[in-house]
TrEMBL record:
UniProt-recorded name of the protein: Two component transcriptional regulator, LuxR family
Domain Response regulatory: 3-120
Stored InterPro entries: CheY-like_superfamily (IPR011006), NreC/VraR/RcsB-like_REC (IPR058245), Sig_transdc_resp-reg_C-effctor (IPR016032), Sig_transdc_resp-reg_receiver (IPR001789), Tscrpt_reg_LuxR_C (IPR000792), WalR-like (IPR039420)
A Pfam family recorded for this sequence: Response_reg
GO biological process: phosphorelay signal transduction system; regulation of DNA-templated transcription
Organism: Actinosynnema mirum (strain ATCC 29888 / DSM 43827 / JCM 3225 / NBRC 14064 / NCIMB 13271 / NRRL B-12336 / IMRU 3971 / 101)
Molecular function terms from GO: DNA binding
Record keywords: DNA-binding, Phosphoprotein, Transcription, Transcription regulation
Length: 217
């Protein structure tokens, strides 16, 4: 059973999401919060598998809440940002704050369910259209950093190749084909790279690659 906390200042939105999620056999809404401050306390207490977070809320925004959840809680759950605008400035802030994926509020119910299941499984949402648009715009806007020699030494040559291809939006199978290795080997290299850089998921690994100059613009 995948436990979910809903965070949105609109009760009608939370109610609609609860109906969608609780109708699935493997999903269960365990708590709701109407603002970011309440969300952090609730997540710390309930320890859900996934948090669905609105980013624009009075009384404590979702961006601050996302950052507090991902940086101050032990073993933080992935945060799925549910937003009205796929290229909103708040969305870019949430990406930097540690969000694991994005969906639009008007997405199809099956897309919301699929996103939650994937984040709970640690798969990330790199092949999801909204998330890829956010990454692309984030990369375009961010200043191009020089590659730190310490970063170069942090990963092996193969791990860097895998991370760079991941940042291009390729799946494990596509990375394996490009490097002439098995998908299971890609998964192993990626797992070790994520451990070394402290990334929780594939999306944050891509963000790290852009921030450290490994990914091409």
């Amino acid at each position: 059973m995948i436990s979910v906390v809903l965070v949105d200042d609109q009760a009608v939105v939370r109610a609609g999401f609860r109906v969608i999620l609780d109708s699935e056999d493997d999903l269960r809404v365990v708590g709701e919060a109407a603002d970011g401050a309440g969300a952090v306390d609730l997540v710390a207490r309930l320890k859900p598998d996934v948090v669905c977070m609105d980013v624009r809320m009075p009384g404590g925004d979702g961006l601050t809440a996302t950052r507090r959840i991902t940086t101050t809680l032990a073993d933080p759950p992935p945060v799925l940002v549910v937003t009205t605008f796929d290229l909103d400035e708040y969305v870019f802030g949430a990406l930097e704050a540690g969000a694991s994926g994005f969906v639009l509020k008007d997405c199809d119910p099956e897309d919301l369910v699929s996103a939650i299941r994937r984040l709970a499984a640690g798969q990330g949402l790199l092949d999801q259209a909204v998330t890829r648009r956010v990454i692309g715009e984030f990369a375009r806007r961010a200043p191009l950093p020089a590659v730190d020699p310490a970063v170069e030494d942090l990963l092996t040559a193969r791990e860097k190749e895998v991370v760079v291809l991941l940042a291009e939006g390729r799946s494990n199978v596509e990375i394996a084909e490009a490097l002439f290795i098995e998908p299971s080997t890609v998964k192993s290299h990626l797992g070790r790279a994520m451990t070394k850089i402290g990334a929780r998921d594939r999306l944050q690994t891509v963000v790290w690659a852009y921030q450290n100059g490994l990914a091409a613009r």
